[in-house]
Amino acid sequence: MNEAAGKPAPRPGILDIAAYVPGKSKGPAGVAVRKLSSNETPLGASPAAIEAYRGLADRLELYPDGTAGALREAVAARYGLNADHIVCGAGSDELLSLIAQAFLGPGDEAVFTRHGFLVYEIAIRTNGAAPVVAEEVGHRADVDNILACVTDKTKVVFLANPNNPTGTYIPIEEVRRLHRGLAPETVLVIDAAYAEYVRRNDYEAGIELVSGSQNVIMTRTFSKVFGLAALRLGWAYAPPNIADVLNRIRGPFNVNGPAIAAGVAALGDRAHLEAAVEHNDVWLEKVSVALRDLGLHVTPSVGNFVLVHFPDEDGKRAPDADEFLTARGLILRRMENYHLPNALRMTIGDAEANEAVVAALAEFLEPS
Ligand SMILES: *Cc1c(COP(=O)(O)O)cnc(C)c1O
After folding, report:
1. Is residue 243 within 8 Å of 216, Cβ to Cβ?
2. d(CA 4, ligand 1 centre) in Å
3. CA–CA separation, 34 and 41 (whole Å)
4. All domains of the chain, ordered by start, with CATH?
């Protein structure tokens, strides 16, 4: 008998999906945990955002504003955008899924890079389209390789800039060159989840590229530097033709009221944002240098995390390091799912957590 008979079958492609595995948050019983596995900010959310969130606690019977108008206005004012071209989502993950849902179906292809963010592949397969992987060069997206993957079946190209988990970025000139190489019918998604952290003269998140096109979307999130990951809040800036499409298919109340209020307040707290970026600037450098001094290879990162590569030596590989660190309550991210079995990703934490990881890895690497 046909194995599939007698039970519902999902659409083709869905059973090919490897479910997303979030960062661990637990260590051994009784050991204090420092979670550096999900790129969360060690500074937490802005106190103003927390207050705004609490302010809605006794109004939970009310539906939120389905247009998230206050948030779109606040984002528009902050970044100099037209609020009509902003679409909010329950995390940028939702927006990435909506984009895939709107533009991908069976027979279509979508391109992302070898170590690109895993949500793209899930979103592509969910819609029955074929994922196409462009090789990176030095763990960095390579525009020529991406363009070489593009065919007339390619409907969407996903680029995380900077990328998670590698932490690398490509200059805006390269993103423009990528865009010029695509047909006007192909959607270019620039996922700029870590844009606020990047301090490089040749980096831009892609706002101008969106404004001047009909096929570029930039996605942003409140989960990372703004510290609102628990609320699930993101936004996309898109040309009117694409914003219109996303607005047709999104849930009518896809962003919740406390999230809208907290997001508006977070945008207003410049000092908190600057403190978070400043902290990261200092510790990204310190951690990268300290780990390299231990002899580890650290991919140069502009995000709030580093990709650390371990020696190919018995007892010193990434899974061994992970076990050693976890026993001490230091939780980093395993990278097998990202085809980086001998690397761990470490989120930049507070001073104490960062120093604890460096000290533990020094001990781990000592010749036995
Ligand atoms: C964390 C992250 C996101 C954001 O996810 P949310 O759904 O907004 O929490 C998007 N893209 C990348 C590359 C990320 O690392």
Report:
1. no
2. 35
3. 12
4. 21-44+271-364 (3.90.1150.10), 47-268 (3.40.640.10)
